[in-house]
Amino acid sequence: MKYLRFRATTVILVMLCLMYFITYLDRVNVSTAAAGFGKEFDLSKTEIGLVFSAFAYPYLVFQIIGGWVSDKFGAKRTLIVCGLLWALATILTGFAGGLVSLLLCRLLLGFGEGATFPAATSAMSRWVPREQRGFAQGITHAFSRVGNAVAPAAVVWIMATHGWRESFHVFGAISLVWVAVWAITFTEYPADHPRITPHELASLPPPKKKNVLVPWGPLFRRMMPVALVYFCYGWTLWLFLSWIPQYFLHSYDMDIKKSAMFATGVFFAGVVGDTLGGIVSDRILKNTGSLKKARSYMVSVCMLLTLLALLPMLFTHNVYVAITSLSAGFFFAEMTIGPMWAIPMDIAPDYSGTASGMMNTGSALAAIICPVLSGYLIDRTGNWELPFVGSMILMALGIVLAFRMQPESKFQGGDFPVGAAVANTPA
Questions:
Q1: What's the CA gap between 226 and 234, in Å, rounded?
Q2: What is the C-alpha to C-alpha distance for residues 410 and 259, in angstroms, rounded to an integer?
Q3: Euclidean distance between CA atoms 228 and 224, whole angstroms
Q4: In Å, what is the CA distance from 388 to each residue of 113, 229, 251, 274?
Q5: Is the C-alpha dihedral spanning 415, 417, 418, 424 positive or negative?
Q6: DSSP code of residue 335
Q7: Which among 261, 266, 246 has a CA at the least distance from the CA of 334?
Q8: How many CA atoms lie within 13 Å of 233's alpha carbon, on the beta-carbon side?
Q9: Backbone φ and ψ of 317, nearest 5°
Q10: Are 298 and 285 a contacting pair, CB within 8 Å?
Q11: Is the dihedral of CA 245, 251, 257, 262 positive or negative?
Q12: Coil, helix or strand for 212?
């Protein structure tokens, strides 16, 4: 047991889990803290939505750039720089003096976190066996949902004793600690790790080829269907992350502590969904040998179940129906994460950071549009259930688009030494 607990591959996976947890603490704490700064700065729901979405503009831009950087320069250096930036942004948010400074801090946070998940996927492509990729992506994203679940209660507790500003200072300090430990524990290649064993190395994929150019056009076209599906999922994700605490607070006239408790319950359902989704995807792959069934079919089924779970909210305004529907919807939506994030490694293992960045632009685009549009709809109609109609429509679209992802078809973009031309790269 001691060997299993402390083997090198486990240590790296734990560090990545902690990174996902911390990035989401820093990303979604603003949703609960909005009850404090929204009142202090006299912000409308639309303005609060702008604060929520400001993070996503640089986050979108640096998905692909960050994925390429991590493929070229390595996940270790990429995540050290990213961690320092997102920690600084979080700390500075606690010193904001109004809407403009809040927006600037959130922009810096998006810049810092933009490359994190593609860089983590690049690291996993070397540190995780092929048959465990669904689980690895599921468990790391489960920790991000733990961050979702912990953030509301943690922010409320800190706000009650110190104020909303101090919650950002505390979370920023936690980020700095992670950066220091990552710098010490991670090596770019498993063979270089002092604790790696021959048994572990034998189970891992062969090292990536070095000095290859990314065939940008063909790879982008290959990943486009995956990015579209991830946009459909991302709309629901960012609706939940941005507005669920405020939904319970205002739609049911709860106090902030009770609304945080209900939001935490919804987000913990996502934790279970993330973990189970990765396990189920890997089990399907093991039993059938079919990446299409383990990835595409599973994503399509889970999106259908998400849509069905959210439907009752349109027909009754009852807090217990809402908590049940939202929890079930988030559970099934999160079951798509393990298979979705395994797909870039399945399709393009030599460019997994770049490919996953391309995929995650779908979610990042949803993060820009969804919070603002949802806030606008709530301001204009006063109806807090109306934004969920958009989630259902996009889930229906995702059900169909999931069949076009083709994870079983490995990308044949060609391997190009530095300086080689890529004009004739096959799609």
A1: 12
A2: 46
A3: 6
A4: 27, 17, 13, 21
A5: negative
A6: T
A7: 266
A8: 33
A9: -105, 85
A10: no
A11: negative
A12: strand
Place of tokens 């998006």: 110
Fill in the amino acid letter for 347. I
Within 13 A of 31's CA, how many CA atoms are on the CB side? Answer: 33
DSSP β-bridge partners for residue 417: 212
DSSP string for 236-302: HHHHHHHHHHHHHHHHS---HHHHHHHHHHHHHHHHHHHHHHHHHHHHHHHHH--HIIIIIIHHHHH
| Full DSSP string of 119-155 | HHHHHHHHHS-GGGHHHHHHHHHHHHHHHHHHHHHHH
Q: Which residue shows structure tokens 């409320």? A: 156
Give, in order, the Cα–Cα distances in Å from 140 to each of 246, 337, 399.
26, 10, 24
Q: How far apart are CA 202 and CA 136, in angstroms?
A: 18
SS3 406: coil
pLDDT in tens, the chain (427 residues): 343 357 888 899 999 999 999 988 887 778 778 878 888 888 887 888 888 888 888 888 888 788 788 888 888 999 999 999 999 999 999 898 889 999 999 999 988 888 888 888 888 888 888 788 888 888 888 898 888 778 777 888 888 888 888 889 999 999 999 999 999 999 988 888 888 888 888 888 777 665 567 888 899 999 999 999 999 999 999 888 878 877 887 777 777 777 777 888 888 898 899 889 989 999 999 899 999 999 999 999 999 999 999 999 888 888 889 899 999 999 999 999 989 988 998 898 888 888 888 998 998 899 888 888 888 888 888 888 888 898 999 999 999 999 999 888 888 764 433 333 333 333 3
Instruction: Please count the residues of the chain.
Output: 427
2 token code pair: 């001691």
Which CATH code, of 1.20.58.100, 1.20.1090.10, 1.20.1250.20, 3.40.50.960, is assigned to 2-188+218-404? Answer: 1.20.1250.20
Amino acid making up residue 75: A
Give, rounded to a whole angstrom, the gap between the first and last alpha carbons of the chain: 46
Structure token digits, residue 305: 């179940």
- What is the distance between the alpha carbons of residues 183 and 169, in angstroms, rounded to a whole number? 22
Tell me the angle at which helices 216-251 and 256-288 cross, rounded to the nearest 10 degrees: 140
Residue entry with tokens 């169909």: 400
Tell me which residue has tokens 């810092």.
112
Single-letter amino acid, residue 72: K
Q: Name, in order, each residue with C-beta under 8 angstroms of 58's C-beta and a sequence gap of 6 or more.
A: 107, 108, 110, 111, 114
